[in-house]
Amino acid sequence: MQSAAIWVGGPASMPVQTQRTNLVATVSLGIAWAAAVVLGLRMMLNYAGTPGEIGAVPPSWPSGSQIERSIDRSTLVMVAHPLCPCTRASVSELAQIMTAVHAKVDTYVLFFTPKDSGSEWQDTGLRRSAAAIPGVTVLSDVEGVEARRFGAETSGHTFLFDGGGHLLFSGGITQARGHSGGNAGERAIISMVNQEPTAHTATPVFGCSLGLHSQAGDKARCLR
Questions:
Q1: CATH, domain range 74-223
Q2: Cβ(87)–Cβ(177) under 8 Å?
Q3: What is the pLDDT of residues 133-150, one digit of tens each?
């Protein structure tokens, strides 16, 4: 009697060479995937840690500014782009600053606004968040006129002036692009307003370009 040949499928029944080939292919794919993940994380970290541009910041309150500067206490000015996702962190840190010093400082947030722009620029979540902070006055900076006077080119750039109009601090109040949390800029401003010593008078600014050198603020730069 002849017995029927029975084939049992599965890895154990594959030729050894085929198993080795599949193993090599799987390992190679795993290495490629891991490398892609590492490269992506590195690019994200590099982007988050790359500061924005800073213009010519005047050493005292800019002449011609239409903002009302306080003469009996400090004045704090933040320049922002209403569509910049990175600036959410800056506004969050501004809220922390105001909790600590709001009774001792007049504070403005100037939002870049293209001429003849609509609600997509003038009624954003970022503007509403800034306006909701006690002690903060939100203003529209049409075509970035005030931003240029202060030397701001990156969203989130913050300035502190004393009652005499002298610049005390210029820089960002986040430790990286879009990252909330304690940072040197925030601590410096709180210390200065409270007339305490500080190690910093300037910090890098992490945020989107205000697009002052392009038409309508170059919305795409802020959303990349």
A1: 3.40.30.10
A2: no
A3: 999 999 999 999 999 999
Beta bridge partners of 209: 154
DSSP tag of 112: E
Euclidean distance between CA atoms 91 and 109, whole angstroms? 9
DSSP symbols for 166-178: BEEEEE-SSSBTT
Query: Can you name the residues that pair with 161 across neighbouring β-strands?
Result: 75, 167
SS3 at position 109: strand
pLDDT tens for 172-215 read 999 987 788 989 999 999 999 999 999 899 999 999 999 886 55
Domain boundaries in the chain? 13-48, 74-223
Burial of 88 (0-12, 13-18, 19+ CB in 10 A): middle
